[in-house]
Amino acid sequence: MGIHTFHYQKTFKLESGRRIKHLEICYHTYGKLNTKKDNVIWVSHALTASSDVFEWWPGLFGEHDLFNPREHFIVCANMIGSPYGSTNPTSINPVTGQPYYLSFPQFTVRDVVAAHRLLADHLGVDKVSVAIGGSLGGQQMLEWAVTDPERFDRLVLIATNASHSPWGIAFNESQRMAIATDRTFYANKPNGGDKGLKVARSIALLSYRGYDTYGVTQLETSNEKLDDFKASSYQNYQGEKLMKRFNAYSYWYLSKAMDSHNVGRGRPGIPEALSLVKAKTLAIGVNTDLLFPSAEQKYLAHHIPNACYKEISSLYGHDGFLIETKRIAAEISSFFSSFFNNHGKSERKPTYQQAG
Questions:
Q1: Residue closest to 25 by CA, chosen among 86, 112, 84
Q2: What is the pTM of this model?
Q3: Known binding-site positions for substrate
């Protein structure tokens, strides 16, 4: 395992026309590229995760898991805007010599993909055996598979969509509104907006989980309580936890990048864009997902050629894509077996099946 930084020597142009000088992309690699260069697993992380995929996706990625360094060359890169090493709002602007903060240029999922394509070229990765991502990570992988369809053999999209929904955008805007109520956010200092970020995380959790999740995990054992409820403590704890490891500026820009996701932008339409994907594709939904409902993954499977859909039952809503790793690994393994059995043969349009 190793952590590295890719330094892009040219000026990086964003979809908006704005530019970033001295772009840096921090990334992790695990395992080694084999002589045939056909063992690459490329994973994209979600909103507040990092490039250390072994840390946040155990059960899928690890020494003894489905994706392991003994068999695979695994690459996970931090997004632009992420506070874990890639160029982000707290980085030094080479023009001013000061951190960017709110002067950081707004970027899109497509910009993140463009940066990671540069990294793949730098690493000599012309072909990716498996590209995988969930949530915002899935949005990145889908956009990349549309933009650069020849690079990928297999694509695994979990709890994600072809364009971010009005519902998802509304949740993100509510979180940004919470951050904006913290006046320190506009002070341009490292901990600016921390209290607002804590509230934003609390809002986000309501979309990541659900009524039944809280009913089981935060249910009181006594009928006599008047205050200090488990659910209240949980919201505060999770908000504090993110506040200590993240920053409000990265959260603000990354949530806007998620809102920008639409594979149909600048193309004839969303179905037409999805038809460009050449990778054999597995779309996985979580039956209780409120933020990325399973209908969105069914839509992907319906419009991507050579795609199939599987559904995982989970108590944990959208967070099921991080928690139900045993079930997800089983579905991916089955998909791989089908891929090799049908490789080189024409495949029928997917049938929708439920797993778990």
A1: 86
A2: 0.94
A3: 201, 319
